[in-house]
UniProtKB/TrEMBL annotation, chain A:
It comes from the Eukaryota. InterPro entries: UreF, UreF_sf. Belongs to the UreF family. The lineage of its organism: Eukaryota, Metazoa, Spiralia, Lophotrochozoa, Mollusca. GO terms for molecular function: nickel cation binding. It comes from Mytilus coruscus (Sea mussel). Coiled coil: none annotated. This is UreF. Keywords: Chaperone, Nickel insertion.
UniProtKB/TrEMBL annotation, chain B:
One of its GO terms (molecular function) is nickel cation binding. Belongs to the UreD family. It comes from the Eukaryota. Keywords: Chaperone. This is UreD. InterPro entries: UreD. The lineage of its organism: Eukaryota, Metazoa, Spiralia, Lophotrochozoa, Mollusca. Pfam families: UreD.
Length: 223, 279
């Protein structure tokens, strides 16, 4: 793929108009606010960073593995199943499989790619990192851009959820985004060579608090 | 005499077997058929602990804890129709590690048909500069059962030593036959720009993992924030289980959740391994 086309594809799949359902998930931010884990702006910003770090330490190994195996269906199925086994947190599992399935379907249909559409039937769980890596691999997007975009999406979605929870304004959110996304290249470098056996959670509190999402009586997000 | 920092490699193996003819669904009178341990590990298996159908196992470490660079490995096997309890007399202390030393603890649980292993230890506490790696592997059959508690605290909080260990890496994996049905890996440490201390807020007892297979206690929803408890159900390849985690401001609060799980087990265990420990 030419550099320009690669950029266009990446812009398209990262666009908030690309319907993967990312905006119905807060990645634990809503639960953290309700449970008083996050009580001020500084803690909110840290909370976004924890989400990005966990997406790096846990998600990036799966993105990389499925990117490298994007043409081998059996391997992808095994990676997807392993991702499922490693996600006992049912809220995280729900967030990951719902977004993964939507992403696979949207990519398959919008790019008219039969390979992606057939993956929809073959993958048993469709976890987001696995689907993300596989789709970008199939479309020939560079691996480093894939990882960067994956983490960008994680950060963007959690910040966006706090706008809708009325904790930050839209412009303030962009200032936070600018500051926090500077760490993304470092996060990519920390985890880019990790195997799926090494995938782990670095900040368990945000993961645990996301797990408590269903304990809340009223909620705006799915996770 | 062993000086601090000298590497020690301890191994221990305990095998439980049932000798009477009991029904498939029952636990029989249990006997220890293998008991091996090497320095710095020692394993105590008291003769009488309440219920003759449940064997209590206490591994202890010379020096009162794991010295920097220690490597210990424990294998517990429950043969068909046996019931065992792996517990402790006090918390597992992981002392500081100098230079690049790594302290490791590897637990292997092999669980036979219709047997039950309860792993109910006291919490793990990592001292300042501790560098700890713990792996717990469960190999079980489809009719085996495990209840596994794993919990840690921030450090010696009375000495204001909170979240000052170097690294705490913990991985728990459950295999049924050749299939992995559960894996949970965490690695708590500081990363550039982000401190584990601030991520923990004022919680001192986080990351308590319970994996209960074939066991479903009633756990109510918690809205208090002194202790936050989460529950997920696990369904994989015909196996069912419960994944319960909590976050508590102190061990007494953590124990309110632990008690709910342990209480229904008391008739089987014969006594409470946490009696008079956490109020």
């Amino acid at each position: 793929m030419s550099e320009q086309n690669e950029l266009l594809t990446l812009l398209q799949i990262s666009d908030s108009a690309f319907p993967t359902g990312g905006f119905s998930h807060s990645g634990g931010v809503e639960s953290a606010l309700k449970h008083n884990i996050v009580t001020n702006k500084s803690e909110l910003k840290d909370c976004f960073s924890y989400c990005v770090e966990n997406a790096g330490s846990f998600g990036i190994p799966f993105v990389t593995a499925s990117y490298n195996a994007c043409l081998e269906i059996q391997k992808l199925v095994a990676i997807d199943n392993h991702c499922d086994v490693c996600t006992p947190n049912h809220v995280a599992k729900r967030a990951s499989t719902r977004q993964g399935r939507s992403m696979l379907e949207t990519c398959g249909k919008s790019f008219g790619n039969s390979q992606m559409l057939s993956l929809l039937d073959q993958l048993q769980c469709c976890h987001l990192p696995v689907v993300y890596g596989a789709c970008c691999g199939i479309m020939g997007i560079d691996i480093k851009s894939t990882m960067t975009a994956f983490l960008y999406n994680t950060l963007r979605s959690s910040i966006a959820s706090s706008i809708r929870l009325d904790k930050v304004g839209p412009l303030e959110a962009q200032i936070i985004q600018t500051n926090l996304q500077k760490t993304i290249p470092d996060v990519v470098n920390r985890y880019r060579y990790r195997t799926i056996e090494e995938a782990c959670i670095v900040f368990p509190v945000i993961d645990l608090i996301q797990n408590a999402h269903d304990n809340m009586f009223s909620k705006l997000f799915y996770s | 005499m062993v000086a601090m920092g000298t590497a020690r490699h301890g191994h221990a193996t305990v095998v439980l077997e049932c000798h009477d003819h009991c029904k498939e669904s029952e636990y029989g009178a249990v006997e220890v058929v293998t008991l091996k341990h090497s320095y710095p590990l020692k394993v105590l298996v008291p003769e009488h602990t309440g219920n003759p159908k449940c064997k209590w196992i206490f591994p202890i470490v010379f020096g009162g804890g794991l010295v920097g660079g220690d490597n210990v490995e424990i294998i517990i096997e429950t043969k068909p129709n046996t019931c065992g309890l792996l517990t402790s007399q006090e918390s597992t202390k992981v002392y500081h590690c100098e230079d690049d030393l790594l302290t490791t603890q590897k637990m292997n649980y092999i669980i036979g048909d219709n047997s039950l292993l309860c792993v109910l230890p006291d919490y793990c506490v990592c001292y300042k500069d501790a560098n700890f790696l713990q792996t717990q592997n469960v190999q079980m059959t489809e009719s085996g059962n495990i209840i596994l508690l794993d919990w840690m605290t921030c450090g010696r909080s009375a000495l204001k030593e909170q979240w000052l260990f170097k690294s705490y890496k913990n991985s728990i994996q459950i295999d049924v036959g050749s299939n992995t049905v559960y894996k949970d890996s965490i690695h708590i440490h500081d990363v550039p720009g982000l401190k584990m201390k601030s991520s923990m807020k004022n919680y001192q007892v986080p990351n308590i993992d319970w994996e209960c297979y074939f066991y479903a206690p009633a756990v109510g929803e918690s809205v208090k924030t002194d202790v936050i408890c989460t529950v997920s159900t696990l369904q994989k390849g015909g196996m069912s289980g419960l994944y319960l985690r909590f976050l508590a401001i102190n061990t007494a609060q953590a124990y309110t959740v632990i008690k709910e799980i342990v209480d229904p087990l008391l008739p089987l265990l014969g006594a409470d391994p946490f009696q008079n420990k956490y109020g």
